Amino acid sequence: MTSSSRVAARHAANQPPHILVVRNDKLGDFMLAWPALACLKAAAPQARISVLVPAYTAPLARLCPWIDAVIVDPGDAAGKQAQRELLAQLRSERFCAMLTLYSTPRIGWLGWRAGIPCRVAPATKWAQLFYNHRVVQRRSRSDKPEYLYNVELAEALLAAQGWQPQARPAPPYWPLSPGTAAAQRESIAGALALEPSRPWLFLHAGSGGSAVNLSSSQYAELAAAIDSRLAADDIRAHWVLTAGPGEEPAAHELCEMLHDRRLQAKVLPPRTGLADFALALSAADLFVAGSTGPLHIAACLNRPTAGFYPARRSATALRWQTCNDASRRLAFSPPEGAGESEMSAIDLEVAATEISALVSRRVAAKSAS
To answer: Which of 175, 220, 265, 333 has its CA 20 to 30 A from that of 72?
Structure first.
């Protein structure tokens, strides 16, 4: 049966098409899948979209407006019984198509065993043998952003199903309901005694163990340089320090370093979970971090971002570019000739000048509106 025949058969049975999207690795990788999910929903609004994700990103998946259902992946280390239960669930969902944004042999095997007729994945490594639609991308060259590679895979699935891709959706890829960001800002202002009229600069110094990042002393130097430039423009900023699990002591230590430099700094109080933490980032006027999950959450919310990246080819600023508007993102890496992870080679004075200019433009635009 051809793809168009399958689509017609589904319509005849009055069954909406059901698509499974797999991104079951790290938080930042999952956030960079949201543009692809938006692409699928724009072209096939009648489709039901389920995602297979690990337990720790599932709370965010349940907030994604492009996702209809969440299936939790027990992971590679789960026992045979958990793997059998996952296979049984995938079979029972009767998916018409599966889009695997990062393929592993276990996931490819599951899709094949589940009998999903259309299976799309990058043409990399031997796991591609389980897929009947393979897309050559050569991601290791890092020629374009990860989220665009994901969008191209989504468009390949749409073509395989006989659906016409629409114009690619634009940021924000996580549009919030009216009043959500204002409510977050009001709540944080009350908890930390912040002045709502001032710009709030969020700084996330942690890395989650997955990214090369600036040191705490470098972040303190950067924040002081930004603050002095903003003060010269009569802009008084609040610094809000965020932290992941286990990173709270380092955030408090950095906060003391900022106090020593006479900056107005507070640590964001502990949140009730990942979803609550993510929503809090909507209150930021700027989010500063390494190439970590929180940076990509802020970008999905289309908050202005300043990211710090190593020069490693697999982790470049282009490959892991944030998916917010181009006018709202800055990226900094070690200069050519420096070691690929030599973050101390980044010129923090140049970074401070560019970041403070972005904040000043945002303040001026807000004042004019």
So the answer is: 175
pLDDT (tens digit, 9 = 90+) per residue, 100-154?
999 899 999 999 999 999 999 999 888 899 999 999 998 888 899 999 999 999 9
Q: Counting Cβ atoms within 10 Å, is residue 248 exposed (0-12), middle (13-18) or buried (19+)?
A: middle
pTM for this prediction = 0.94
DSSP string, 79-101: -HHHHHHHHHHHHHHT-SEEEES
Tell me the pLDDT tens digit for each residue of 291-348.
999 999 999 999 999 999 998 877 889 999 999 999 999 999 999 888 878 999 999 9
The enclosing domain of 87 has a CATH number of: 3.40.50.2000
Distance CA 174, CA 183 (A): 16
State the DSSP H helix or E strand holding residue 302, giving kind and residue range, or none if neither: none
Residues 356 and 214 in one domain: yes
Find out whether 95 and 20 touch, Cβ atoms under 8 Å.
Answer: yes
Residue 92 token pair: 């029972």
Overall domain count for the chain = 2
One domain for residues 189 and 156 = no
Q: Determine phi and psi for 270, rounding to 5 degrees.
A: -55, 140
